[in-house]
Amino acid sequence: MFRSRSWFGASWGRPKNPHSLERLKYLHNILCKNTTVSENNRGTLVESLRCIAEILIWGDQNDSSVFDFFLEKNMLSYFLKIMRQKCGGSSYVCVQLLQTLNILFENIRNETSLYYLLSNNHVNSIIVHKFDFSDEEVMAYYISFLKTLSLKLNNHTIHFFYNEHTKDFPLYTEAIKFFNHSESMVRIAVRTLTLNVYRVQDASMLRFIRDRTAAPYFSNLVWFIGKHILELNACVRNDAEHFSSHQSQQKLDDLVAEHLDHLHYINDILCLNIPDLNDVLTEHLLHKLFVPLYIYSLTSESTRRATSSSPYNRDHIQSIEAITRNLEAILKGKNTDTSPARMTFPRHRMETEDECKPSVSGVVSLFLLSQVFLIITHGPIVHALAWIILQSDLSVFEVGATKILEMYISNAKTNVKLEFSKPQLSLEKALETTSSERDYTTPEYSGPKHFGDDLDNTDQSSCDLDPELVSTSLPSTSHISESSSIDHDSTEDLVTQVQSMKSISAVTVKENMPDSPLPDSGIESSSSKSNEFNNITDEEKQKMLGVTSSTSNERVITIESIIDKENKEIEKRPFLKTIFDSLDCSENDYKALFALCLLFALINNKGVNTELLDTLLCPEEEILCSTSECGSNTPVSGSSSNVENEATSSEGKTDVSSPPDRRPLQSFNALLISKLMAIANLSCKTASKVRLVTLELSVTLMRVAMCGTKGASARYAPDVNALRARAASLARNFYKCDDIFLDMFEDEYCETSKRPLNVEWLCMDAAILLPPTRTPMSGIAFAKRLPSGEMERARRAIRTFFLIRDLYLKLTGKPETQLPLTNPAPFVQVGESLDLNDSDLISCDIIQKDGTWQHRFLAVDSIEIILVEPDKQRLGWGVAKLVGSLQDLEIQGDKEDPRCLHLTIHKPRVGASGALPRTVLLRAKFKFDDHIRSMAAKQRLTKGRTKSRQKKMQQIGRLLEVSGMCAPALAPRHRPLFARPALAALAARRSTGGEDDTERRLRRPSAHMLKDGIVVYRERTTSRESSVSRSSSAQGSREGSPRARSEDIPMEEIKRNAAALAVASTPVISQTQHSTSTPLQKTISSSEETSFISSEPQRPKRKGLVETI
Amino acid sequence: MAYAYLFKYIIIGDTGVGKSCLLLQFTDKRFQPVHDLTIGVEFGARMITIDGKQIKLQIWDTAGQEAFRSITRSYYRGAAGALLVYDITRRDTFNHLTTWLEDARQHSNSNMVIMLIGNKSDLESRREVKKEEGEAFAREHGLVFMETSAKTAANVEEAFINTAKEIYEKIQEGVFDINNEANGIKIGPQHSTAGGASGAGGAGAGGLKRRGAAVCNEHWYETYSMPDL
């Protein structure tokens, strides 16, 4: 047929210009002639369809007549016809069709063209067409097509897709059928599409979505999240039991990331602020996932224990179950008496456990709840969850569900006043109108029970038929199918739909049915309650004693009594108790980390009512104060230690009569702080099992928890100070006049200040779900595992000290003055002109690796190494070309050439950059005139390096309160080797007294007495440095020089220091007074022995440091 | 069409830098670049050959979804390669690269190969970003760099294929876990059906072949059990 074009002459010939109306006419003709797809014309058709896309877009941009022709000839209908043919190669053609449509809708700019394209129902017919979705290419193009369309949605175009009269919205309903497709990109496209739909904010369309699709879609979504969680739990359990393989860890990573994706998706929906949708989604999330799975699992651990242990425990557990049930009833707005509800989360068939309800381990549930609170900020959800965790207690039984419901609602009401008005209004509405809200779901759900008579069947269907559940329960898309004459499925569609709808309702009803009568909760609770009061653990009391032992006697009693009371109270809050119990790190901090994450997330969530958080953040007295201020008729008044019995019992009664929001909140602030203190205390022990991340989180929380108190600093400062002392003593174990310790100290400081803890990122890391490890080979960051080896133990001790010291400073409001370690003077700037008259300069050639060669003069200050070039303008002056810190200088001799030295110069760490990692400025070979000058340079550098390090070590010593170092700091004195006019004023300003300047001027001549280095080396001096430097202690090498003596420290300073600190073991002093400093040396060397470094192998780079002449 | 591997790519960058045009230019050579026609697409797939192996590239444009955090997150995670595109005639698109890169690094799996692309190299007269700047940025962040033109098709082919080569090398090195589809890499049907490949030779039975593969793969099975009503 196609071949026949030549018979008709040129008019049917292929127009030369591919972009023209003629060409489109020609293509139209091809479509007309090839209505049936066959092997032969497939290629032609595909190419025509492709060209059509090209021409149409060209036309849209250049020539409107092209589009007119396309619409006039109704060419989209040809597309449909081709699509509907069940032909062998149709997927090939379908892919092309979909690509053409994609291009069309993606590139079209002309609004009217778009409207025309959408105006007849062809696009909807294409949407509902059942392509061969098993072909991944078809699937991908199809879902991209839907997504592209969704990006075109707005208040006008929505009406082309959503038919208000027929209640039809194929674009949406077809897409969500694929929400759980195996291909991640497809799932993402579906989520994108739904979000694009929701955001259109067309009232009628949203009503349709709420009434007809929200319940099935969200319930399925929630169900799959739950399924995912159970998989995640299994993964964690496997890993915990066996050695975790790389692959399973990757799987865990994926599952965690997937859960986060879901939560973010849910949050994105909630953030669109569509009240109706949010209500449904909130309800589903709370009822089907968060409460029955996440919250319930908080107590699941104890469920297992219950079978074996005391009757108290069993009662306790049963009451917890009852609480969960009651809560659910509350959330549903139903009274437990009339319709006892049970957990509706479908049973998960687990091979191992004989549990009747699915649950995850406590660790996983804490982790998941943390994620929920970190991501979701929708008031009604997070507030309800927070309320359950913090407030639900055993009084639920006494008061009865109805009263609790009232209280819950009124709590929510107060919430409205306090914060987010819009979402919380919707919660109120949701709770008040639950019955009417139910109306839209019940018709769908209230069919007769067709199947699912036995429970297994129910599980089966809910486990495996979910995609069907979605697809079949969705409203009919048959309207479009009916309009098309070819499709005969439409009536069948309807029939199946009705049937499947019934089956779903059967399933859901079944799920909602209780399979066992509710236990008589009232009796249970009273019995368990009496047990609890006798059951307060003394362990905790002792711990508290340990914490507060250092404080004054009087206060011990009061704090203790508060904690004591809170300990009793918390027995009645099962969920909060679980969290608090998890904070116990005596064995390890596996669970504690998650409990801390949860508390952190809870406290920092913007959707949670601040009043509710007072439970954790406000101390007892203040809550009582505020409540007695606002509600004068509440009977609770006293703050004596045994008031809580009366308080709770009276609470129960008064709540019935008085407004429930008057009920004073029980505070657990003191208990929380004591638990956090216990963690901090534990981490100050040498063989602690507390990871750094756990400590950092507890310290952060402690700061927040102490903020609520007015006199917090007064109350807790002594404790925190004691803690700080403990941390200092831990770090002191590793303190040593040693290269490594200083480097480590500064590096760790840099680490801590550079990366403050980000809990959200922490909770993205699946690795923390595995039990804490020690080995760095696990690839887990240092802070998230336990230290391995002496080096890491030292690092850990240093960081612990930083964290706790920071807490202390923040609490007491003291400014940070000692960190980062300061240099005694500012560094010279590169390019600065220096007066070098009278200074020691050593001429040298600098040869870099790439062979570049420079001539410079080397000058050494007390803290810096400076390479200068003579100043051309002024004789005796030089321009600084490179300034490096002496402290970090690496010096190495050259084996072949004694005239050479290898130096690695690092950038000085000053001011803000003090917290940055070290950066290498120059690594090169320095060639001196002869071996003597080389040696002189080496000694000068080595000594300068040691000295500048000693200064810093003294600073650390003061920080860590090393004995003999806690005396007042030596006044930082800077005596430059050369005058720096630019900096002189600055230095004067920085120094404590004005006399400093004059002092310096006086001292200068003496500092440069010696100009000839040669004399220096003849004189033998046993230097203190030899014992400081670990490589040389055995050799007893000689270093130093008379010049050093005169330059190091001015005489008057030495005298003053020696007088002031008779025992002070500052190396500076011993260096100058070496003959008398033998006892001092001993004390130092003994401390060296205890240090870890002495047992470590020497660092190779230091080898050339000390040589005997 | 059988393939050894399928790599999923995403294209990221500011709006208007020519992402979708690049995508169409690469995935469908039939669309010849013409001066008076700007045409792009959000999704495309194409088969290429590396090391004698058929590799299918699936490229997803992420345009228009920036408003939703959940979406960007998931996209990054599901991709094995990313093309980070800027427009050499618009300085601001270059300045935003850091933000894009941070996002990508935060959300993607650490092995994702990122290629930096300076697009519209045909508009030399309006150039605002020097080639050297692009090179420096790429060097600094460890990316592969290339300047392309979707208009003239210059370097487009190379950009996509070089990225694929790098991914392929990573697979050979064992860096990528190819059994984990969340990485954006999928093994072709004939890989998973090691023994059953005999029937796959039949050319005419396109649909049948796929069904055969599906049975072997649990994930596929889930999809297929979708009711056709």
Automatic annotation (TrEMBL), chain A:
Residues 250-619, 666-962 form the CLEC16A/TT9 C-terminal domain. It comes from Arctia plantaginis. The keyword GTP-binding does not apply. This is Protein CLEC16A homolog. Keywords: Autophagy. Belongs to the CLEC16A/gop-1 family. The keyword Mitochondrion does not apply. Residues 629-657, 1067-1082 have a biased composition (Polar residues). InterPro entries: CLEC16A/TT9 (IPR039272), CLEC16A/TT9_C (IPR045820), CLEC16A/TT9_N (IPR019155). Residues 49-198 form the FPL domain. Residues 431-441, 1040-1056 have a biased composition (Basic and acidic residues). One of its GO terms (biological process) is autophagy. Residues 431-492, 510-537, 629-662, 989-1109 are annotated as: Disordered. It comes from the Eukaryota. One of its GO terms (cellular component) is Golgi apparatus. Residues 1024-1039, 1083-1096 have a biased composition (Low complexity).
TrEMBL record, chain B:
One of its GO terms (molecular function) is GTP binding. Gene3D superfamilies: P-loop containing nucleotide triphosphate hydrolases (3.40.50.300). PROSITE patterns: RAB, RAS, RHO. It comes from Arctia plantaginis. GO terms for biological process: protein transport; vesicle-mediated transport. It is found in: Endomembrane system; Golgi apparatus. Belongs to the small GTPase superfamily. Rab family. It is a lipid-anchor. Keywords: ER-Golgi transport, Golgi apparatus, GTP-binding, Lipoprotein, Membrane, Nucleotide-binding, Prenylation, Protein transport, Transport. InterPro entries: P-loop_NTPase (IPR027417), Rab_GTPases_membrane_traffic (IPR050209), Small_GTP-bd (IPR005225), Small_GTPase (IPR001806). Pfam families: Ras. The lineage of its organism: Eukaryota, Metazoa, Ecdysozoa, Arthropoda, Hexapoda. This is Ras-related protein Rab-2A. One of its GO terms (cellular component) is Golgi apparatus.
